[in-house]
Design goal:
With 462 residues, this protein is mainly α. It has 18 helices and 2 strands. The longest helix has 29 residues. The protein is globular, with a radius of gyration of 22 Å.
């Protein structure tokens, strides 16, 4: 009697009811970050409210398409893991500079299209670099991703960056209430409900927030029912050398960040990212970025917010996130629905974000627990890499006097920490050992090197 091979949890398709709930949970986790980039760039360029609304709906539409490409995949595009896609914050400063110094939106979109094509061309090169991401590096990078996201959650808890009531005790109390609901549901509720603890926490938090005046649904009535983004709505793209160079630097940064996110999700879902699948994921990023330039939006990357949600809920199906992508497409085509989601107050998201982003950091620690720290310099690699990753998070203006390209790379704690971890791992574990370092330790390992997984980066040495 023939038996069917077991389906990997990543490829399982949950029941429709669960798909919808899990997918909506992913959308709520990333929505604030997704709309922040068009709001910042459009606000800096002093666009009209109508143009700002257009940027947001275009962004949500392409976010959804990019997520579908990444999760479902076709040919050599898509990593086929539960990965949400959204606009990268690494591109915000360069795009504001391009848009406000005479180039305008057409120059932004021209540089975005070129950057997307460059990412597709460079994807196989990054795929071959995967051997330089042993558990020592991946664990450190995942830890830095989580730590870098915590200030985002902190801003939400306080009411949202720039809010008039930022830091008011009522905001922090609402966030603490949502956090308590999420933890209570995860600890005491049945298995299915515990997996949508974030969604329940946000729903309960919103129900409490409405009577206390935390949110306003006035924007829902003003929003259109249907809105379709058309290619090159703001004019044909222009290709300016300086804009293209700055966006190519952004492309390298986002590829580094995406590599860390893909490896993190691979660790959480027990489907290790291999060189080919990493290339496919980065190639999908490039295609999505090209689509962003065509459909009036910005460069795309994997969203670390949702990496934490995968780890927290332990729901590993890529089809759940594909449904989230479909919901984003609907929000992009139906602005009134988008306005409803946008009405969720920041403190509600902050309470849930503390759990999700902390989960990412904890996952990094879990990966580092597999690393051998005896008789070698691996502790130094972790220590310096985390310090370099946290530095721009704690002191955002530390590189303010440096050239723009340097700021683009180093102002991202994720890329700064990732590059540091790779370089230090090469320095301490791949170069010849220093004289006198080959004295065996009691466990038989040579001192000074030998981080487990350096020669076999994706395996554990027993």
């Amino acid at each position: 009697m023939a038996t069917t091979a077991p389906v990997h949890p990543v490829d399982e398709v949950p029941p429709v009811r669960q798909l919808a709930a899990f997918g909506l949970q992913h959308v709520l986790a990333m929505y604030a970050g997704a709309v922040a980039v068009p709001l910042i760039v459009g606000g800096a360029m002093k666009l009209s409210p109508a143009d700002l609304a257009y940027l947001i709906t275009a962004d949500l539409l392409v976010c959804g398409i990019a997520t579908l490409i990444q999760c479902i995949g076709f040919w050599r595009f898509g990593v086929r893991l539960p990965i949400m896609q959204g606009c990268t914050f690494a591109a915000v400063s360069p795009m504001v500079l391009i848009g406000t110094t005479g180039g305008g939106l057409p120059a932004i979109y021209g540089s975005v299209i070129v950057a997307g094509l460059a990412i597709m061309l460079l994807a196989p090169v990054f795929g071959r670099l995967l051997r330089f991401f042993p558990p020592l590096v991946t664990g450190t990078v995942i830890l830095i991703i989580g730590i870098s996201l915590l200030p985002v959650a902190g801003n939400w808890v306080a009411g949202g960056a720039g809010a008039k009531d930022f830091g008011e005790p009522k905001n922090i109390a609402l966030a603490a209430f949502v956090l308590a609901v999420v933890l209570g549901v995860q600890r005491f509720a049945p298995a299915f409900l515990s997996r949508i603890a974030v969604l329940i926490g946000i729903a309960v938090g919103l129900a409490v927030a409405i009577p206390f005046g935390f949110t306003d649904f006035g924007g829902v009535g003003d929003a259109d029912w249907v809105g379709v983004s058309t290619p090159f709505h703001f004019g044909a793209p222009s290709f300016e050398t300086s804009a293209i160079i700055s966006m190519l630097v952004v492309a390298l940064v986002t590829m580094t960040e995406t590599t860390g996110d893909l490896i993190a999700v691979g660790e959480m879902t027990d489907r290790k990212v291999e060189p080919r699948s990493l290339s496919d994921g980065l190639r999908a990023d490039g295609l999505s970025t090209v689509l962003g330039g065509v459909f009036n939006t910005f460069p795309y990357t994997a969203y670390a917010q949702n990496v934490g949600l995968v780890g927290m809920t332990r729901v590993r199906s890529r089809w759940v996130v594909a449904v989230a992508g479909a919901i984003l497409v609907l929000l992009g085509l139906l602005p009134k629905l988008g306005a409803v989601v946008a009405a969720v107050p920041a403190p509600v998201l902050g309470g849930a974000g503390l759990v999700m982003f902390g989960t990412v950091a904890a996952s990094g620690l879990k990966t580092l627990a597999r690393v051998d720290f005896k008789g070698n310099d691996n502790l130094t690699v972790v220590a310096v890499s985390v310090a370099m990753g946290v530095l721009p998070v704690g002191v955002p203006t530390i590189y303010g006097k440096f050239p723009d390209w340097f700021q683009t790379v180093m102002n991202s704690g994720i890329s700064a920490g990732c590059l540091t971890a790779i370089v230090l791992n090469l320095l301490f574990n791949h170069l010849p050992a220093k004289a006198g370092s080959s004295v065996p330790e009691p466990d038989g390992l040579p001192a000074g090197g030998g981080e487990q997984g350096v020669e076999k980066p994706r395996e554990e040495i027993v």
